[in-house]
Amino acid sequence: MSKLRVVHYINQFYGGVGGEEKADYRPELRPGKHGPGMALSQQFGDEAEIVATVVCGDGYFNENVDEALAAILKMVEEYKPHVFVAGPAFNAGRYGMACGAVCKAVSEKFDIPAVTAMYGENPGVDSFRSAVYILETGDSAAAMRKAAPALAGFALKLAKGEEVGMPCCEGYFTRGIRKNVFVEERGSKRAVSMLLKKLKGEEFETEYPMPVFDNVEPNPAVADMSKATVALVTSGGIVPKTNPDRIESSSASKFGKYDIEKEARFTIHNSETAHGGYDPVYANNDANRVLPLDVMRDLEKEGIIGKLYRYYYTTVGNGTSVANARAFAADIGAQLKNDGVQAVILTST
User: Fold this and answer.
1) Of all residues in the chain, what percent carry a pLDDT higher than 90?
2) CA 227, 230, 232 angle in degrees (round to 5)?
3) CA 217 → CA 214, 223, 239, 322, 347, distances in Å?
4) What span, in angstroms and rounded, lies between the C-alpha atoms of 307 and 230?
């Protein structure tokens, strides 16, 4: 019996091309298995084989989605796989976004099953969980030993057309799909049982988990803005011309801090946006539309605020993981507090 055919997608790092300096690597088709495909292949055994591997730079994909997908789909079509596998991406945001997008496109174009795997805070999860199967992994490649068997096993199940069980049993993220099932106890009895456990402080598992949102208590109002130092912070990607720190256009791994003490406003000569996901023309023509340096200078001159903090902080919110965003906020907040800033103007896109 012939083996099931698998096409695998990986980024430039796992393809052995290079790190961030090679993130602009264009899609490349390689016969056989490469990178983490070696571990997947061991798990497939005699049942399936990786017939081809697609390698693409995270930066190139996320900045040229349509072109990248068109090229990748042609590559996949050539091998006519029974199942398509991407990743695992762990907590690499741009990699996760690419894995999700490629799986979705392949599944829709060729009507074949596709699966990827990543960490829960990877932005690819929320962006594509409703469209493709995404298995849950640890946050780094250190979890590859557990991720590879799970990903290979699930891919085999999909390729064979076997029934896929519930997310809690199979290890994939919920997809927002609800099915009617028969159980021994009726709903009212199960609800009362859960309530009693809750009242006793015992553990129980709800049948309808609700989303959890952070609640942030607002700080007290600034008593006298005319004496306050105010800072500018943005997730809109406004950076000095040429983006000197190479802040990514999607799934940012860093933020920048830049001196504006001698600047009256942002201009086309001293600034631009690094942000992907929205039309940059208006921001590049006048970055004050995203980060109002010009207006803040007016307020400073009029004495409405005490002074504008000499630095501004910037990053890109597009696809950036919650974990990274929290880390940026903690670092920026600590610096501002240490420098005596009393208020912050925080803008997005």
Assistant:
1) 74
2) 165
3) 10, 18, 30, 19, 19
4) 6
pLDDT over 90 at 277, yes or no = no
What span, in angstroms and rounded, lies between the C-alpha atoms of 289 and 308? 17
Contact 94, 61 (CB under 8 A): yes
Angle at 334 between CA 287 and CA 263, to 5 degrees: 30
Q: Indicate whether 30 pLDDT > 70.
A: yes
Mean pLDDT of 136-162: 93
Total residue count of the chain as it appears in this document:
349
pTM of the model: 0.73
Neighbours of 160 (CB within 10 A): 13
> What is the pLDDT confidence band of residue 63, given thresholds at 50, 70 and 90?
confident
Tell me the C-alpha distance between 138 and 8, whole Å: 20
The strand ranges marked E within the chain are 4-11, 28-31, 48-56, 83-90, 114-118, 133-136, 229-234, 238-240, 256-259, 271-273, 307-314, 343-347
Q: How far, in Å, are 251, 280, 328 from residue 322 at the CA level?
A: 10, 24, 10
- Indicate the residue type of 121: E
> Residue 89: how many CB atoms within 10 A of its CB?
30
Alpha carbons 156 and 135: distance in angstroms, whole number? 14
Q: How confident is the model at residue 41 (pLDDT cuts 50, 70, 90)?
A: very high
- Give yes or no for a contact between 63 and 18, defined as CB atoms under 8 angstroms apart: no
- Sequence-ordered list of residues with C-beta below 8 angstroms from that of 257, at least 6 positions apart, any chain: 311, 312, 313, 335
Residue range 208-235: mean pLDDT, rounded: 88
